[in-house]
Amino acid sequence: MCGIVGYTGSRNATEVLISSLKRLEYRGYDSAGIAVIDGGVRIHKDKGEIAVMERSLPAMRGGVGIAHTRWATCGKPSKENAHPFHDCTGKLALVHNGIIENHLALKRRLMEQGHEFTSETDTEVLVHLVEEHEAGSLITAFMSALREVKGTYAVVMLVEGTDTLFAARNGNPLVIGLGVNENFLASDVTALLDYTNKVIYLLDGDVAEVSPRGVVIRDPDGNVVERRTDIITWSAEDAQKGGFEHFMLKEIFEEPEAVQNTLTGNLDSIASGEDWYGRDLSSVRLVACGTSYHAAMIGKYVLEKVAKVPASVELASEFRYASDVREDPLVILITQSGETADTLAAARQARRRGLSTLAITNVVGSSIAREVGDVFYTHAGPEIGVAATKTFMAQMVALYLLAMRLGSARKTIGSDALREMRSQLMAVPNHVRQVLDQADQVGDASNMLAEARHVFYLGRNISYPVMLEGALKLKEISYVHAEGYAAGELKHGPLALIDSSTPVVAACVKDHTYDKMLSNITEVKARDAPVIALAQEGDEDVQSLVDQVIFFPDVPPLFSPFPMTATLQLLAYAAARKKGCPIDKPRNLAKSVTVE
Amino acid sequence: MIPVANRPILSYVVQALVDNGIHEIVFVVGYKRERIMSYFGDGQAFGAKIEYVVQEKQLGTAHALLAAKDKVQEEFLVLAGDNIIDARIVSELLQAKEGPAMAVASSEMPSKYGVVGQEAGRVVSIVEKPITTSEKVVSTGMYRLSPETFIVLEEAASKGIMAITHALGANLKRMHLRAVHTTGKWMDVVYPWDIIKVNSAAMEWEGLSVQGTVEDNVVLKGPVSVGPGSRIRSGCYIEGPVVIGKGCDIGPNVTIQAATSLGDAVVVGPYSHIKESVIMNHVNLGSQIHLSHCVIDDGVQAGPGLMSAASEANLGVEREFFALKRIGMLVGQNTSFGSGITVEAGTIIGSECRIGNHGRVRGNLENRSIVI
Fold first, then answer.
1. CATH at residue A43
2. What's the sign of the alpha-carbon dihedral B187, B191, B193, B196?
3. Spatial distance between the Cα atoms of A169 and A146, rounded to a whole number of angstroms
4. Beta-carbon pairs below 8 A across chains A and B
5. One domain, residues A8 and A142
6. I need a labelling partner for B308 at 20 to 30 A (CA). Which of A425, A465, B23, B268 fits?
7. How far apart are CA A321 and CA B201, in angstroms?
8. Which letter, b or e, does each residue of A144-167 get, where b requires 16 or more Cβ atoms within 10 Å of its Cβ?
């Protein structure tokens, strides 16, 4: 994944581009570059974060430019492989996010035709292809070049001698920001919010010419089309750290609000009594990647318990390879950004199979919204930290609400139980707040994790996916190898790995699995493993068995994922902070994965 | 972050500054600073630029001020985060003549504060919480100071004096500290029951609007504000000033009277009556509840029939006794009540208490008490 920005207008393009690009740093940060028309096309790039490139940046004037921050997919991170790329004449420069699948064949042909390449990237073929077609007008050349390409892209190109930027989108996000006598392009609206909140989301296949005077958008056949202008209500300040050391911590502390905002306005629809998705729904398939996949697993437990509908969970990247043996009348796709490539592909696949699709996403106007029949927006606000925190919490809330609504439509839950669930959900922000107020209590436990090389997270029932997510958080940001396991599987392998240097984090929820969990703890204690237990307040039995107890509020087991998740996030954060890891930008990871 | 008319007290301070064209604000924060930082962020939403300085140990006000030393190059104002003030105090401090100044005010209860002795507009003595005093002019804890004051504070700190009033009080001879008598609104929350009075005073200043859903046959009288996502069910009678937060569920047939604020996600069951009370966030109240002159903190749960009527009462807090004219009860976070509980006037219940069914509660209950 990469971040791209473009500017055309009367300001100093370099300043606008650098400040916008920094807001996209979450999309990649292994190298960065900028091109500005200052007399001719001037390109500057460097390996490393945007700040590194900025330090060696020469003074460049000019009101037209493009810039890029990279997360390597094709070609290693290096100065040579950083964007923008120029053609042989040096008059065209181009930035790209995505993958050109047929780049090797194209590159061979272009080299035979005498083009010179300076990098290992797939992107560079694009700019030479445009050069090859340059006989006609620029827009025709640009479109002809894209027609030859197989793969996904968001592209912005600048050309010496004109203030028009050429942009195209197919499978990767690209938005146009509308200003007064100036216009912007970016991978994501957060990059634009300092300058404008009026944006146009390009659709796949769109090609745009953007100049200070206006925007012309064409469909793949070259017909001029109109696209809707959206007004974004997020402010750029929403994307700032505001006193917190890391975005991740800030976002964890925003969880009570994220939950509250996701609930507000959605609680009333639950008991509407309408026949939502049909009483006869035979099964539900939940499809997602990464953290969203864990939310889906929790969703499975809740859907089955509340709506009594068989639910299965599948990774988006694997759903695509599944053959059509089983038809799931409803496919729920979960993606924070709404741009996750695998999830988007799964949505298309599901629709092709004629299934109903429902997406849960946090970004209004994102690609997934256009690929599905129905959208549930989690109103968690923008999330900058690469490790998903508050958006995961909001995804869970969305799934509980969906389960309640399905349950009420299918008459699998009585109005009394529904009312009780409703009041429990309303109390979630307060329970999470209590966890945050006692953030200090993870201190000693996090020391144990920071010093470990391997950690096991054990849970049963609904706590199992919660622990998978807890392990993922630790892996992502502290680089400690962590494995989430269903505690029942302990004896089927992992027990062999447990010794005095592998801490075990165990979820002890007071449900019907509690006693089994305690015996699992005894098993690992017998192998000298240090044990950290997550237990409900007032649980004194656990305390005597383990090395550390982290208490969370005493809530009904079905609602324990909320306070437990917040606890595990704080635990991973504290461990990573102790190790001095770059928490908001873990190595090799990017916020939303828009390549497959 | 105590809410007054559903906004933290600190936000009134920020507003008073911004109204006077002061946009650069440094918060000295300590324990549990995350709530403050979550709420204010970098200040842009409040029209200010807010920076944070962390005071790891809360040793005193002068110690806190010294923590912010590096952020301050020019003359600056010092304001307390737990006072409700209006813009006038700030403008009076700004308009005072050159040099260091202290905002002072007349008080009915001078022994709660630092009592200030003055001569020709100059502060000559400060006596902290005197037992008896004839003076009625007290320090509001608000100052206009210059960076040179840090030298005085550092000297005092080296002698172990960590409060601003003490540090300045010890140097009144060599330092000309002007007394600026303010007539602006100034209220502080020293004791929990002060919240009720401050809340009711703050409400009058609020701009009010109805954003949630109000069902048929609801009467809204006077200034009533209802937050987005809230539902006021049929048969409710609400007499302002009343502020209701986001995502609340009220009624049916509930009466709420002035001056009451309900936080976010508060549920009030059928046939309940609430007046002159501060109900914070995520409070869940059952049916047929009566609350008058009460302060209910976050996450309190109550079954049907909770009764706390206000009357005269003597409250004992930290070995001091206070005779209050009207008071209901004060309840800490996440305490839960069973059904049919009657609470005597002036009862203070700590946080995380569990109170059973059908009983009478009085006196002071420690945190985590269990009443069977």
1. 3.60.20.10
2. positive
3. 10
4. 89
5. yes
6. A425
7. 65
8. bbbebbebbbbbbbbbeeebbbbb
C-alpha B101 chain-centroid distance? 25
The answer to whether residue A429 neighbours chain B at the CB level (below 8 Å) is yes
Determine, for residues B37 and A439 on separate chains, whether the beta-carbon distance falls below 8 Å.
no
d(CA A414, CA A70) in angstroms, rounded, equals 52
Average pLDDT, chain A: 88
Quick: pLDDT tens for A102-123. Answer: 888 999 999 999 999 999 899 9
Asked whether residue A442 falls in the same domain as residue A412, the answer is no
Angle (CA) B64-B66-B72 rounded to 5° is 115
Residue B157 dihedral angles phi and psi, to the nearest 5°:
-65, -35
Cβ separation of A553 and B334 shorter than 8 Å? yes
**In the predicted structure, residue A397 carries a pLDDT above the cut 70:** yes
Q: Does residue A416 share a domain with residue A428?
A: yes
pTM: 0.71
Return the number of other C-beta atoms located less than 10 Å from residue A273's C-beta. Answer: 11
Cα angle B353, B355, B360; round to 5: 125
Residue B244: which H helix or E strand, with range? Answer: strand B242-244
Paired with B320 in beta bridges are B317
Domains contained in chain A, number: 3
* ipTM of the shown complex: 0.73
Give me the CATH number covering residue A593.
3.40.50.10490
8 A C-beta contact, residue A235 and residue A222: no
Taken in order of first residue, the domains within chain B and their CATH numbers are 3-190 (3.90.550.10), 208-371 (2.160.10.10)
| Catalytic entry in A300, A390, A510, A591 | A591
Residue type at position A536:
Q
Among A391, A408, A436, the domain boundary falls at A436
From the CA of B264, how many Å to the nearest CA of chain A? 9
Q: Which stretch of B117-126, B128-137, B211-220, B239-248 has the lowest confidence by average pLDDT?
A: B128-137
User: pLDDT digit string (tens) for A429-488?
Assistant: 999 999 998 888 898 899 999 999 999 999 999 999 999 999 999 999 999 999 999 998
Q: Which two structure tokens, joined as six digits, stand for B75?
A: 């003359």
Rounded Cα distance, A332 and A375, in Å = 9
Q: Do residues A205 and A67 both lie within one domain?
A: yes
Domain, as residue range, for A343: 246-436
CA–chain centroid gap for A59, Å, is 35
- Closest partner residue to A263 (CB to CB) among B27, B247, B334 is B247
Report d(CA A505, CA A503) in Å as an integer.
7
pLDDT per residue over A143-161, tens digit each? 999 999 887 889 999 999 9
Output Rg (C-alpha) for chain B, integer angstroms. Answer: 22
